Please model this.
Amino acid sequence: IIDERYYKTNVSNCFALNGNSFRPEVFNVAGIQAYYINAINNIELGEATLLAPMLQRWNEMVSFEVENNIRKYYTFLILTDGAIQDKDKTIEQIVASTKLPVSVIIVGIGDGDFSDMEFLDSDGAPLFCQKTQAFAKRDNVQFVKYSDNKGDTQKLASETLQELPRQMLEYFEGKEIEPKDMKLNSQNNEVQDYSSHKAMQLISNEFFKTQVNSDKRQEILAQGIADPDTIDYE
Model:
């Protein structure tokens, strides 16, 4: 239960949609939507836009989880309508996250100024944190503008997840973490884990992404076929 008195008398840049900061987990997309609708009716949106508090909390949660399972990988999705007011602190948290099994996906909504988001994406050079004097260990940020893919959900999904396979592989390879046998029900024993290199090659294959319909892609992935040259697309 969300206490309206709390959310109307306190400013928070990082809170749980379900009103329970100790157990903020929500089950499936429908659950997220339901809690979002409930929360939006009990809070007042305001300025400034700060990302660092959420990223810091996320890094803390992932750091704890890594102690129990080194083979999990996490995605942090940010939906934003423009510039942020804590750019330096956000850079600090993103640089810290590059040491963790984390990818940060940012979707820009509307016609706001997204120059900060494009800077955070930093495809040309690694991010550098002035406070810690540290460079990002790897590129783990992807930024896309919703308006560039508006009306085409397949293209939006493709652009949003485009760098995720590479980012995940770079992390696990950098940590020398081998894929674990998931014992998939497959007659093709070549691939036993979708985080393996060949499976990621298939998912990143241009023909597979753009020319094969979604139902066929799911069928192929379920079969565990890794080599695009051996796939029957009929």
Observations:
- DSSP finds ten helices and five strands in the chain.
